[in-house]
Amino acid sequence: MKNRLTKLASYIFLIGLTGATISCSSDDSPSETPTQPETESRWFTIAGAIMDKTPGNGNGGTVLYSVSEENAQDPEFEINVFENGYQVKSQRTARLQSSADGSTMFNIAYGGDIGGEFSKYTVEGENNFTQTGGVVNISQYAGTSPRWVKLFDGDQTGVAVSVTSPQVNEGDEYQYTRGTASVVSIDMEDVLISRNSSFEIPLTSEEEKEGYHIFRLDVPTLNASKDKLIIGTWMRKTDPETGLTDDTDYERLGSKSVIVDYPSLENPKIITSTVGEGDTSGYRSFNSFLAEDGNIYQATQRDPNGSHFLKIDASNEYDNSYALSLDDALGITNSYVESWRYVGNGIAYVMYTHDGASVSNFNSGQQQSFLARVDLFSNTAERVDLPYDADMYFFQYQGFAVDGDNVFVAVSPVGKDGNIYVINKVTGAVTKGAKLLNEPGNHFIGIF
User: Fold this and answer.
1) Number of domains within the chain
2) For this UniProt entry, which residues form the secretion signal (predicted)?
């Protein structure tokens, strides 16, 4: 950060000046010990999604604005992201990641002529984001609307995934629909494609005959031994009679993930949970995390029995003896995990909605979102006490910032002002931070 460098330069100058004074003085009295430079905290970047014609859809682009930790925690400090922010490259909502220390933002443009373009920015405070390290476009491998996340490997690697699902017929007779996956690893330090792989992901012949197929891949997660990637899936079904997507309440097959070797991205394998029946792809943020116990915990979406948290063990198989039902833990029905973040020691913060939640005023098909503190080790959960609103919308949320014991979340209803909230991950205590100024139809999608 500029301020840190300025202070460091001043400190070095003072040391040199003090040393010169001591060597030239005939007075042997000890000099005053120089004051240590202030330790400046990291930047926190707030991301806002701009509407196009529909409030809350975020399809008008994405803006960023960064503040100090002191300002992020100050309830008297106001942040106007939409008026003063920096617009990153993306036709629709940008797909954002950040370095662990908040000093760098990473983005892959979503949709349009620059869709698939990976770039990174040095965070320098307020709306000062300097693009650095060049640009690489992965659209030739993963399309112009790839899903991607960074791996937790010291901010070295990002992995993007995509899938096409062509239908195969013999004459007029339906045979199957089968996904063909593309996986691309990105060297985020040197900004280049380090490896890519493409492969079919067939289900069993009976499942394919009935029209089941993997429709989307997302959120690759590196296992504890760093030799496998676990990739979440979204299942769909084709109606064999019509060749169209089956929109009926068909039988689910169980939650599935695709596993490939890492770093080769080869030897795909499908694993299936007998506990969850939902998809494991998430939407626009991480949906699986490696915990300290060596297991990967994964959430489900579109689960007919409400969202579950599943466990993938060190052998890279589902541990079907473990199941955490969000419905049971919170006493609700038909829960849906929208976004979540594992913060350590079994604790996760989970954004979700459920049956009976208020219907949004801006979108009749959107229900109100909530935030819960979930203990994955004890299978318990409780709703976080926040100023909820029918127009609070976390479905597109992407970023939680974790700094020491503090978890930072950006909270506001669509088109209304909100706040940053700071949650102590050990005690669960919630503190109101800076005020987030909003504009009609817009919403906040993360703090990084």
Assistant:
1) 1
2) 1-25
